[in-house]
Specification:
- The chain has no helices and nine strands.
- With 151 residues, it is mainly beta.
- It has one domain: Immunoglobulin-like, CATH 2.60.40.3880.
- The chain has a five-stranded mixed β-sheet with strand order 3-9-8-5-6, with no helix packed on it. The chain has a four-stranded antiparallel β-sheet with strand order 2-1-4-7, with no helix packed on it.
- β8 and β9 form a beta hairpin.
């Protein structure tokens, strides 16, 4: 069975191919979204890095993974789906680049970066990880209640 080890969202990641290590730079736990007329979050692009491994090291296996962003009200946006091929290797590091996701007005709060797996196309998705992401959305500028006086 394929197992999920972790998922991290960061501003960037660097893979050292000689040492087969990854450095995660500026881990993202919160986003502040500026005012915009567009419902798409205008954020700087960031990486999502996930590590998968074989439950039984000696047994080659594989499956499918799905990455979603879930809003505070439970609305889900699929970011992508990808194969988890552990036939030749005991673990798999998957990295994808996200450039934003949709945020409706007045939906600030705790979003979730959700990772699911399944083994075949006919299987149901099984949620294996939910990583919180706090999204702050400032409201429209308030009108001034102060009286203005000419001098």
């Amino acid at each position: 069975m394929i197992q999920h080890a972790w998922t991290i969202m960061c501003r960037s990641s660097v893979i050292d191919r000689d040492e087969n290590t990854v450095s995660l730079l500026e881990i993202v736990e919160q986003l502040a979204v500026g005012p915009s007329q567009s419902p798409r979050v205008p954020v700087v692009a960031f990486d999502v890095v996930t590590l998968w491994y074989r439950e039984a090291e000696q047994d080659p296996e594989g499956g499918l993974a799905r990455l979603e962003v879930v809003s505070p009200d439970g609305e889900s946006q699929t970011v992508g789906e990808y194969p988890v091929n552990l036939e030749e290797h005991r673990r798999l590091r998957y990295r994808t680049r996200m450039v934003g996701f949709f945020v409706r007005p007045n939906t600030a709060g705790r979003y979730w970066l959700q990772v699911s797996r399944r083994y075949t196309e006919s299987d149901e998705w099984d949620i294996v990880s939910r990583t919180p992401l706090q999204v702050e959305v400032p409201g429209p500028p308030e009108d001034s209640d102060e009286d203005t006086q000419d001098s």
